[in-house]
Structure formats: structure tokens, C-alpha cells
Amino acid sequence: PVTRNVFKKVSVDDIYYIESQGHDILIHTREGVVPTGGTLKGIEEKLSGMHFGRCNNGYLVNLEYVDRIHDGMVSVGEDW
Prior knowledge:
Blueprint: E1 15-21, E2 24-29, E3 32-36, H1 40-46, E4 52-56, E5 59-62, E6 66-70, E7 73-76
């Protein structure tokens, strides 16, 4: 579950990808995973005009970190 009422500043440049998991949002960054509330659509609207793309219903990907796309799988950042 997501920890509520805890705030952590995250630089957009440090985000690899953002994942929707049930009613939670997980922001995968250089420093680890930052859980938050909200909706993926709401975050997508806030990141509009930046280098993010939705690759399916559950993920927003920072296109700056895409290493490759193969057989429908996207390789992003150091986690992959």
C-alpha cells in the first residue's frame, strides 16, 4: 500500500517510468521507487509536453531512458 501524507520531491529528469498498480502509482527513479496516490491520467496530464509516453494502460515511460524496444517490450533505465 501507498504511504499517505509523506512528500518527496522528485525531479522529472530522474524518473525512468511511472506505473499504475491498482489504486496506487509507483514512480521508478534513479534513487528507487516512490509510491504516491492519484491517477496515471492525472500524472500524464501534468507531464504533458515533456518526454513521456504511455506504452500501455499501466505505464508512462520517460523516453529519454528507453534503451530499446523488442517484441513489444520496452527496455528502460538501469532496472532492465
